[in-house]
Amino acid sequence: MSHHTLTINENEIYYESYIQDQTRQTIILLHGFLSSTFSYRHLIPLLKDEFNVISIDLPPFGRSGTSHRYVYSYINHANTVIQLCERLQLKKVTLIGHSMGGQIALNIAYLKPELVDGCVLLCSSAYLQKSNRSLIASSYLPFFHLFVRRHLEKTGGVEKNLRNVVYDHSKITAEMEKGYLEPFLENGIFHALKRMIRDREGDLPIEKLHQIKTPCLLIWGEYDKVVPLSIGKRLQKDLKNAKLIILNDTGHLVPEERPHEVLTHIRAFISH
C-alpha cells in the first residue's frame, strides 16, 4: 500500500493505492457521508490480491483537505475523481460507492461514461433533494459550524450512529468507534460541513438516471435504516442496466458487515 496526496480543484485529495499489475482491472472506492477510506478496511484486503485498488478520501472527510475554496457538491466531487483518474492515466475503471459515494459514482457514470466499466452501488444514496432554503441561509451565519458540531453530538455521537447503521451490534468494536470518530476531532471539518450543506445539490433526477447505460450492481442490506431497501428497488427500475442483490440480516454498512459476500458479488460482476 502507498499513501498519496494530490491538489485537485484547490483542495488536498488523499488516496491510498494498492497497485501490483497495471494490466488488472482497477477499482476506485468511494465512501459515504461522515466516513472515509477507513470504512473499506475489511474489503480492501480481499480486493487487492485480485484487482488494482484506489481508495479515496472525499473532502472534507478522512485525510483530505477542508479548503474553503473547494465546492462540496456531488458534481465537483465527481469531477475531482475524474481528474484524479486522468492524472493517474486510468481508463475503464470499476467504481464502488457506498451511500453518498454511490451517488458520486452515478454522477461520474453520467458525466464521463467512457471512463467507467461498471458501478457497484452499496446502499447508494438516491432521490435526496437539495437542502431547504432556510438551512442554506442559516449556513452563512458566523457560528453555524458550531451548530453543525452540536447537532452531530446530539444525535448520540459515533456509538449511537454506528448502532443505527450496523444490523449486528456485536460487530461494533472500540477500533471501529475510534476510526469513525477520528476525523471529527478537528474543527476544520465542521466549517467544511456547513459549506457542504449549501453546496450539495440534490441527487441525480430520474431523467438523468435513465440516461446512464453503465452496468450497475446494487448491493443492499435487508435492514438498512439509512437508505431503505425500497430505494434500492426503485433505483434498480430507474437505471437501464442494473441488478439488485439483497443481503439478509444486514444494515447500511455493508462493507463492514459482509465484506466476503460483497467480494463474491463484485468478482462475479467484473468477470461477467
What would you note in describing this structure?
Residues 26-259 form the AB hydrolase-1 domain. Pfam families: Abhydrolase_1. This is Pimeloyl-ACP methyl ester carboxylesterase. The chain is of the alpha/beta class. It has a single domain, classed as Rossmann fold (3-Layer(aba) Sandwich). 39% of the residues lie in helices and 19% in strands. It has twelve helices and eight strands. The chain has helices at residues 44-47, 74-87, 100-111, 133-138, 144-154, 157-165, 174-181, 188-199, 206-209, 229-238, 254-257, 259-271, and strands spanning 2-8, 11-18, 26-30, 52-57, 93-98, 116-122, 216-221, 242-247. The chain has an eight-stranded mixed sheet, sandwiched between helices. Helix 5 crosses helix 8 (188-199). The two termini are 28 Å apart.
List the helices and strands and how they pair.
Blueprint: E1 2-8, E2 11-18, E3 26-30, H1 44-47, E4 52-57, H2 74-87, E5 93-98, H3 100-111, E6 116-122, H4 133-138, H5 144-154, H6 157-165, H7 174-181, H8 188-199, H9 206-209, E7 216-221, H10 229-238, E8 242-247, H11 254-257, H12 259-271
Parallel strand pairs: 3-4, 3-5, 5-6, 6-7, 7-8
Antiparallel strand pairs: 1-2, 2-4
Helix pairs in contact: 2-3, 5-8
Organism: Cytobacillus eiseniae
InterPro entries: AB_hydrolase_1, AB_hydrolase_fold, Epox_hydrolase-like
Pfam family, one: Abhydrolase_1
Instruction: Indicate the multimeric state.
Output: single chain
If strands are numbered along the chain, what order do they take across the biggest sheet?
1-2-4-3-5-6-7-8
Number of helices: 12
SSE order = EEEHEHEHEHHHHHHEHEHH
**Global shape:** globular
Report how far the terminal alpha carbons are from each other. 28 Å
Write the CATH fold name.
Rossmann fold
Global structural class: alpha/beta
Mean pLDDT: 92
Number of domains: 1
Poorly predicted regions: none
Number of strands: 8
Please name the fourth-level CATH homologous superfamily.
Answer: Alpha/Beta hydrolase fold, catalytic domain
Q: State the name of the first-level CATH class.
A: Alpha Beta
